[in-house]
Amino acid sequence: MIHHPRILSVANQKGGVGKTATSVNLAYLAAESGLRTLLIDLDSQGASSFYFRVRPSKKNWGKRFFKTYEQLLKQIKASDFDRLDIIPAHESFRHFDALLSDKDKRQLRLKRVLKGLKKEYDLIILDCPPTLSY
Fold this sequence. Notes:
Elements: E1 6-10, H1 19-32, E2 37-41, H2 47-51, H3 69-74, E3 77-78, E4 84-87, H4 96-100, H5 106-115, E5 123-127
Parallel strand pairs: 1-5, 2-4, 2-5
Antiparallel strand pairs: 3-4
């Protein structure tokens, strides 16, 4: 049986509408219900990371987000909760739209890099910044 994780993107073009609160609570509830969950904090302010007391790498790795699955794996941090891991925000995510570059291939690039996580997680939640175009 091939395992396909669910990928949930919490996004809105406006700030202050509860994207982070929604992402954090969904991630916690999913992990508590038994799902192996990964929360990816794409907002450079790092509020999701802060909620779970997870600090980002000091190295500027944002440009390598889409390069290799191995680069992404190096950024995964365990939370204090079973079955809940986090890729913390990094200041280099301020221009995440630019990292996605080509408008027509945005979803494909993101899907490709997340595909490698299908064996490790049942649910992947993306806490998106308010400026992320979707």
